[in-house]
Specification:
It contains 5 helices and 7 strands, in the order E-H-E-E-E-H-E-H-E-H-E-H. Strands 2-3-4-1-5-6-7 form a 7-stranded mixed beta sheet, sandwiched between helices. Helix 1 crosses helix 5. The longest helix is centred in the C-terminal third of the chain and has 15 residues. It starts with 7 loop residues before the first strand and ends with a helix.
Length: 177
């Protein structure tokens, strides 16, 4: 529970499979220029989806009320798994972002959650991203595909919209409180 009048500095992990929208999530909401480590994709199989990928991290900051959120975005490619582990240290909560238009993301997200098993007890929310697209899976489908517990909160998200990203983070803050 938060004491009134005190500013909290919270480390928030933004994680998810490759191409889920993590970098855009942070860019949409950060009140400072985002520190990004995006590089040109060298794997031609992955380059058909997008031209850049995060190789180390994204960092942004946001103030909501008296809370200062330090947003740490992880790389999605499995070969950078060691960065996820480093960025997950000393976090207060996390957002698991999935591309709800890509059914292949759901098993990848389950594997990611298994790999970050130590975080499961932390406050978290699941952002079903790209809900503005016609082929987006519904929240119940995302929940079932991720094999979530009833207590896991699945939220609609559009990472290109600041208001949507803010709502996801507000819901996470409610869980941290």
């Amino acid at each position: 529970m938060r004491e009134s009048g005190l500013t909290r500095r919270l480390n928030i992990l933004i994680t998810g499979p490759y191409g889920a929208g993590k970098t855009q999530f942070i860019r949409s909401i950060s009140e400072i220029p985002v520190v990004s480590t995006e590089r040109t994709i060298t794997d031609w199989l992955e380059s058909h989806e997008k031209s850049l990928t995060t190789v180390a991290m994204d960092y942004g900051r946001l103030t909501i009320g008296k809370d200062v959120l330090h947003l740490r975005g992880t790389p999605g490619q499995e070969r950078f798994h060691f960065m996820r582990e480093l960025l997950a240290r000393e976090v207060h909560g996390f957002v698991l972002l999935v591309d709800s238009t890509n059914p292949a993301h759901l098993p990848q997200a389950v594997e990611l959650m298994d790999a970050l098993e130590d975080l499961r007890g932390l406050p978290h929310v699941i952002g079903a991203n790209k809900q503005d697209l016609q082929n987006a899976a519904g929240l119940d489908t995302v929940r079932a595909g991720l094999q979530l517990e009833e207590s896991d909160l699945v939220l609609p998200c559009i990472s290109t919209r600041k208001s949507s990203v803010r709502q996801v983070l507000i819901q996470l803050l409610d869980r941290i409180d």
